[in-house]
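On to my pick:
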Amino acid sequence: MKKLLFVLLTLSASATTALAQTGTTQNPNRIDGYGAPVSPSVPVSRAADEATIDIIGGYYQQDGSHGAVEGGRGTQQLTDVPPAIIVNVPLDTVSRLTVNVGADFYASASTDRIDFALSTPSAHDVRYHGDFGYSREQKSKGTIWGVGTGVSKEYDYLSFNLAGSFAKTSQDGNRQLSLAGQVFFDRVTLIQPLELREGYTTGSTTNRGEKNYGTDTRQTYNFTATYSQVLAKRLQAAISTELVSQNGLLSTPFHRVYFRDNTTELNKAPTSVGDSFSPRVATAARIENLPRARFKYPVSLRVNYYATDLVQVRAFYRFYNDNFGITAHTFELELPVKITPFFVVYPFYRYHTQTAARYFAPFMEHSINDTYYTSDYDLSAFSANKVGLGLRYSPVYGIGRFHVPGKNAQGLPRVMRFKSLDLRYANYQQTGSTIYTAANRADLKANIISFDLGFAL
């Protein structure tokens, strides 16, 4: 039972971590989890007495026609390759060290429109990240506590985080309460759209304006509580809530917003830059402006049902609300099926629907009298479907073995085992609400391929 419960808790933690991490990226407004993983996680249990290494990678590709950089119109084309390595090392029988390091190599056609020129620094970049954790178990008391820290860096933002966690398991192993807290400290470079920079010459394609952008900060505080219960021999459930408080810069400084009634400010952008959208607009844009405080309070329920020895049903539901006015519902269903004792196929489906933030309006539908304004479609009303298939191969004695430098405690050559292989594909499609005109509805599409190579030493 304890092992099954650990798997359940790991899966539940993966879901809440994804939401928490969205507050630290350059785009803090995504809440439906469609994109490439911000921080890889390993959704399987690990033996307590062995060191493990997971090599995680994949490819993410998206496209759409409502980029926030151009005020809600224009390309959303993006590709991302996010390799990472997760090392899990037992220091002794009760303590463990975890290291998670990786990078995101991405190319974004939408952010390339900041300057209306290809191959600007924002077109291709790398985000580096590293997280380090320590946990210690008190078996006699049924408790596990942990601490961690991490850092993330790319060309226009730097983030540090601190984390702590505590879990208490009942004596029979059927119940567990886990508490976790995390705080992020972000510093963002205020890169503005080309035509809005100080010193820019109207219509110029060579003058890039003042590049002393300045910086701003953002702090994110997360608290998560999860209660797990084994309800029956084949049924387990976990309920969790995550309170998120964000303070500081929540808008993106290079997101443009155009107004229906801006009759006095002329667009200074160049007019001979190919298919860029903004130069075809006579009036000037302003920088996206959002409140500097946001509170998120989702509640989720996860249920695992072992229908037979070969088929499992994993269901997840999350209700989300925040003070921006967004209400969202997310439902996930995964059906792992054992083809053989070592080979599992798991189709999965995710549905997400949300209302719009009160500060959102499509292209040229804001008024210059609005206090806050954005045309970022992550804050619009839409529904989304994500469907995919995963494959896991994990034979008892591993897929293969090979020698590595060094010797074990018995003086024998050390052997690394290739234990498991996970492959996963998903297709994502986002559809805008009918409250908007057809031209103003979200239309994002994405394909995601990922893999996890599991090793043990």
